[in-house]
Predict the 3D structure of the following.
Amino acid sequence: MSQTLLISVFAAASLSGAFTEIGRDFERAHPGARVRLNFAGTPQLVAQLEQGATADVFASADERWMQHLSEGGRLTAPGETFARNRLVFIVPRTNPARIGRLQDLARPGVKLVIGAETVPVGHYGREMLAKLANSPGFGSDFARRALANVVSQEENVKAVLGKVQIGEADAGICYRSDVTAPVARYVRVLEIPDPANVVASYPIAVLAAGTQPDLARQFVTHVLSAEGQRVLAKHGLIPIGSRAP
């Protein structure tokens, strides 16, 4: 009986749908291999690695945390960008706060939920709010007023989605790819103008402390392949060959 080779992949929460499918495809293409996926907020994954968790591949939702691991000598090679994403605002389908335009998000009394500043979606979201504040029709204090409405800062983007879906918040900031068909039954999307939006870059790398370096490199190659990119696009991410907004 052939031995099963287990590869452990730590990936940002916003990749859960895409990487679950990619993991299944990889197993079919590599008989005897099994992919174990661990999804969480990017800084949570980094903390797990620094506290002794072992993994073979790390896929981050931003460059900052990948660079952090690189500086700590935890990568076999620099991370490679494999996908991009962009931000949207979401409101509950019932829209209790009657939010009709982006400017309404800074209205007193609106309950806004965002990612914590250490989380990529939270970092990107604050950058986007600052860009909106410099856009015509928003006012220079837009970001300050919107951030004053924040009632919760979450550790990953799925938690932001959850609070908006169940009506604990009037609005939230998430990735476009997170608004899947099941989620869209419960939320409405407010698009952000391209000049004010922030394009998120997702890098992937093989971890130096992993137990399956050859298989890990093959997994990274699969993610970067045409088939891997097709799956990422299917799940709402922007393939690296596409022109980002």
